[in-house]
TrEMBL record:
<dbReference type="Pfam" id="PF00156">
    <property type="entry name" value="Pribosyltran"/>
</dbReference>
<comment type="similarity">
    <text>Belongs to the purine/pyrimidine phosphoribosyltransferase family.</text>
</comment>
<keyword id="KW-0808">Transferase</keyword>
<dbReference type="InterPro" id="IPR050054">
    <property type="entry name" value="UPRTase/APRTase"/>
</dbReference>
<dbReference type="GO" id="GO:0003999">
    <property type="term" value="F:adenine phosphoribosyltransferase activity"/>
</dbReference>
<comment type="subunit">
    <text>Homodimer.</text>
</comment>
<protein>
    <recommendedName>
        <fullName>Adenine phosphoribosyltransferase</fullName>
        <ecNumber>2.4.2.7</ecNumber>
    </recommendedName>
</protein>
<dbReference type="InterPro" id="IPR029057">
    <property type="entry name" value="PRTase-like"/>
</dbReference>
<feature type="domain" description="Phosphoribosyltransferase">
    <location>
        <begin position="44"/>
        <end position="148"/>
    </location>
</feature>
<keyword id="KW-0963">Cytoplasm</keyword>
<dbReference type="InterPro" id="IPR005764">
    <property type="entry name" value="Ade_phspho_trans"/>
</dbReference>
<comment type="function">
    <text>Catalyzes a salvage reaction resulting in the formation of AMP, that is energically less costly than de novo synthesis.</text>
</comment>
<keyword id="KW-0328">Glycosyltransferase</keyword>
<comment type="pathway">
    <text>Purine metabolism; AMP biosynthesis via salvage pathway; AMP from adenine: step 1/1.</text>
</comment>
<dbReference type="InterPro" id="IPR000836">
    <property type="entry name" value="PRTase_dom"/>
</dbReference>
<keyword id="KW-0660">Purine salvage</keyword>
Length: 170
């Protein structure tokens, strides 16, 4: 399936000069949605996955679907102050400031194999922070997978040492 046909460019969003990769047409098409989930699962063939971590907020779309298909638990990583239980946090820099992400302290047990999913790999800051959170809890990141990788932003460099997979690359 040509997944790129279901991703549209939105110029100057969220700010001037940015071309945003909008995945909502893919989400709106049942066949494309199902096939994208199958393809993302295909990246994990022959891997043991205990938990799938979804990154706030668009990572929450596919991560629970992946968890269900992989017979794994789903773990949300959210922006600071959004989770109700005890958390550990990790701060990171963005192009235009900084952000802090949190995960529940009991979400991942020592030695669990973890798949991290987000919609887009851009500069790599978010994914790198999530890897650190998983490792703080004793989990082992076995793969970071994404719907889209914006290769021109070199985000994979911040994930050096981790297996990275993306359905589409731009």
């Amino acid at each position: 399936m040509d997944f790129a046909a279901y991703v549209r460019d939105i110029k100057d969003f969220p700010k001037q000069g940015v071309i945003f990769k909008d995945i909502t047409p893919l989400l709106n098409n049942p066949e494309a949605l199902a096939r994208a989930c199958e393809a993302l699962c295909g990246f994990t063939t022959n891997m043991k996955i205990d938990k799938v971590v979804g990154v706030d907020s668009r990572g929450f779309i596919f991560a629970p679907m992946l968890a269900e298909r992989l017979q794994a638990g789903f773990v949300p990583v959210r922006k600071k102050g959004k989770l109700p239980y005890k958390t550990v946090s990790e701060s990171y820099d963005l192009e235009y400031g900084s952000e802090t992400l949190e995960i529940h302290t009991d979400a991942i047990k020592k030695g669990e194999k973890v798949l991290i999913h987000d919609d887009v790999l851009a500069t790599g800051g978010t994914a790198s922070a999530v890897c650190k959170l998983v490792e703080k809890l004793g989990g082992e990141v076995v793969q970071c997978n994404f719907l889209v990788e914006l290769t021109f932003l070199d985000g994979a460099k911040k994930l050096n040492g981790y297996q990275i997979e993306a359905l589409l690359q731009y």
